UniProtKB/TrEMBL annotation:
<feature type="domain" description="FAD/NAD(P)-binding">
    <location>
        <begin position="4"/>
        <end position="337"/>
    </location>
</feature>
<keyword id="KW-0560">Oxidoreductase</keyword>
<keyword id="KW-0274">FAD</keyword>
<dbReference type="GO" id="GO:0003955">
    <property type="term" value="F:NAD(P)H dehydrogenase (quinone) activity"/>
</dbReference>
<protein>
    <submittedName>
        <fullName>NADH dehydrogenase</fullName>
        <ecNumber>1.6.99.3</ecNumber>
    </submittedName>
</protein>
<comment type="similarity">
    <text>Belongs to the NADH dehydrogenase family.</text>
</comment>
<dbReference type="InterPro" id="IPR036188">
    <property type="entry name" value="FAD/NAD-bd_sf"/>
</dbReference>
<dbReference type="InterPro" id="IPR023753">
    <property type="entry name" value="FAD/NAD-binding_dom"/>
</dbReference>
<dbReference type="GO" id="GO:0019646">
    <property type="term" value="P:aerobic electron transport chain"/>
</dbReference>
<keyword id="KW-0285">Flavoprotein</keyword>
<dbReference type="InterPro" id="IPR051169">
    <property type="entry name" value="NADH-Q_oxidoreductase"/>
</dbReference>
<dbReference type="Pfam" id="PF07992">
    <property type="entry name" value="Pyr_redox_2"/>
</dbReference>
Length: 432
C-alpha cells in the first residue's frame, strides 16, 4: 500500500514541504502526499503587515493551493483539523461552511501513515482584559485586510467631511517585535501615500502612531545593535515608542498600561507574543507546553508518537546544548521543511532519521521604503551588520527565496518581471 503523508497547515513551512515531497515522492508514486488547510489560498505571513497597511495587494500575491497541488504532484483538501485518533491513525476535519452558513464540505476523517502538523501560531494576548474585544490581530490574511479596510474607512469618512475641523487618526500597536515595528513604519508610509492620492483631509503628520513594548527595548528577541538603530529611525518618522509599558487593559477608546497611563487610539493592533492554536493542547495525549506547542524530539517527531511530526511555530523543538527552544522564525520553518523532505523519504525506506540543528542566518527588519536594518551570519563572514538600501535588498530576497521554493527559478523570475511592469500601471497603495 502506498505510504500516506498528511500535512496539516499550508503556511510557509507546510506548503514548502508539500511541494518538495510532491516533486519527489508524489511524482514517483512512492507516497501519496496530502496537504490540508482551512483556506484556499496562501500568502507569506511576514508580508501581512504590508497587507494591513495596503502597500501589498493580497489578491495579486496569493497562491492557490489547488493549482499548486496539481503542478507539484500532491493533493489538497479544504478543512480545519479538529481532532486526532492516534490508534487508528486518522485526523478529524471539521465541516466547512460558506458565507450563507450552508455546509460546503462535510466533517470527515483522513487516514495517515505519517502525519506532519505545521499549523503555525496565533497572537497571544495573555488574557489581557478587553484585548480580544477591542484589538485587531494580524495572524491571517482576512485579519490584515480587515485592518486595512478600517484604516481606509477613516480616511474616506474624513475625505467626505465638509467642515474645517482638523481630522486625525491614532493607531496603537502593542508589541515592538518584528511585526509591530514593521507595521508602524508601513503605516507611516501609507499616511503619505494616501495624502498623495488626494485623501488629504488627514495630513500625514496627523496620523499618530504609538508602539508599546512591555520590555526595555524594541525588537527584544534580536541583538541590541539592531534594535537601537530601529528605535531611532522610528522616532525620526514620528512614531511614539513606549518601552517598559505593559498593557493591562484595552477599552473601545484607549489602552491602559500597568502604570495607569492612558493611550487613546481609534485603531488598536495586538502584535505581542505567540501561542500555538488551542486545539493542539494535549490532543489525544500528545505532549504540549504552556503555549500549546507540541513537544518534539530533535528528529521533529512528537515526543509520544513517532508517526507524528511537528515543525514551525506550533512545535517546541529543543536547541542542543541550551535550555531554549528553536525560535519561532520563518528561517527555522524553512530549514525544518528541508530536513523533513529528506526525513520522510528515509522513513519510508526504513532508515534512521537525521536530527535538526538550528542555524541562525541573522535577522532583517524592514522599515518600509525608509530603511532596513539587520545582520547576516555565516561561517565565513561571521556577523555582518547591514543598514539602508543593501539591507532592504536582502530583506526582499527572503520573499524571493520562498517563491523559488514554491515556483522554481523561471516562474519566480516571471513574477518579478510582472511585478516590475505592474508598478507603472497600478497605484502604490491599495485604495479599496
Amino acid at each position: 500500500m502506498t505510504h500516506r503523508i498528511v500535512i496539516v497547515g499550508g503556511g510557509a513551512g507546510g506548503l514548502e514541504l508539500a511541494t518538495r515531497l510532491g516533486k519527489t515522492l508524489g511524482k514517483r508514486g512512492t507516497a501519496r502526499v496530502l496537504l490540508v488547510d482551512a483556506n484556499l489560498t496562501h500568502i507569506w505571513k511576514p508580508l501581512l503587515h504590508e497587507v494591513a497597511a495596503g502597500s501589498l495587494n493580497s489578491s495579486e500575491d496569493e497562491l492557490n493551493y489547488v493549482a499548486q497541488a496539481k503542478w507539484n504532484h500532491f493533493e489538497f483538501q479544504l478543512g480545519r483539523m479538529s481532532g486526532l485518533d492516534r490508534a487508528q491513525r486518522k485526523i478529524q476535519l471539521a465541516a466547512t461552511y460558506d458565507e450563507a452558513g450552508l455546509e460546503l464540505v462535510p466533517a470527515r476523517e483522513v487516514p495517515y501513515d505519517s502525519l506532519v502538523i505545521a499549523v503555525g501560531s496565533t497572537t497571544n494576548d495573555f488574557g489581557t482584559q478587553g484585548a480580544a474585544q477591542h484589538c485587531l490581530f494580524l495572524d491571517t490574511r482576512k485579519q490584515a485586510e480587515r485592518f486595512h479596510q478600517q484604516l481606509l474607512n477613516h480616511y474616506l469618512r474624513a475625505h467626505a467631511g465638509q467642515t474645517d475641523k482638523v481630522e486625525q487618526i491614532s493607531v496603537a500597536i502593542v508589541g515592538a517585535g518584528a511585526t509591530g515595528v514593521e507595521l508602524a513604519a508601513e503605516l507611516h508610509n501609507a499616511a503619505h501615500e494616501l495624502a498623495a492620492y488626494g485623501l488629504d483631509r488627514i495630513k500625514p503628520e496627523n496620523m499618530y502612531i504609538t508602539l508599546i513594548e512591555a520590555g526595555p527595548r524594541v525588537l527584544p528577541a534580536l541583538p541590541e545593535r539592531i534594535g537601537g538603530p530601529v528605535h531611532k529611525t522610528l522616532e525620526k518618522l514620528g512614531v511614539t515608542v513606549l518601552t517598559d509599558a505593559a498593557v493591562s487593559e484595552v477599552t473601545a477608546e484607549a489602552l491602559i498600561t500597568s502604570s495607569g497611563q492612558v493611550i487613546p487610539a481609534s485603531l488598536k493592533v495586538w502584535a505581542a507574543g505567540i501561542r500555538a492554536p488551542g486545539f493542539l493542547k494535549d490532543i489525544d495525549g500528545l505532549e504540549t507546553n504552556r503555549i500549546n506547542q507540541l513537544q518534539v524530539l530533535p528528529t521533529l517527531q512528537t515526543s509520544r508518537d513517532e508517526n507524528i511530526f511537528a515543525f514551525g511555530d506550533c512545535a517546541a523543538c529543543p536547541q542542543p546544548g541550551t535550555d531554549r527552544n528553536v525560535p519561532p522564525r520563518a528561517q527555522a520553518a524553512h530549514q525544518q521543511a528541508s530536513l523533513l523532505a529528506k526525513s520522510l523519504k528515509l522513513r519510508i525506506e526504513g532508515k534512521a532519521l537525521p536530527e535538526y540543528k538550528y542555524t541562525d542566518y541573522g535577522s532583517l527588519i524592514s522599515l518600509s521604503r525608509f530603511s532596513a536594518v539587520g545582520n547576516l551570519m555565516g561561517n565565513l563572514t561571521g556577523s555582518v551588520m547591514l543598514e539602508g538600501w543593501l539591507a532592504r535588498m536582502f530583506y526582499v530576497s527572503l520573499y524571493r527565496m520562498h517563491q523559488m521554493a514554491l515556483y522554481g527559478a523561471f516562474r519566480t523570475a516571471m513574477l518579478m518581471l510582472g511585478s516590475k511592469i505592474g508598478r507603472g500601471t497600478e497605484p502604490r497603495l491599495k485604495l479599496h
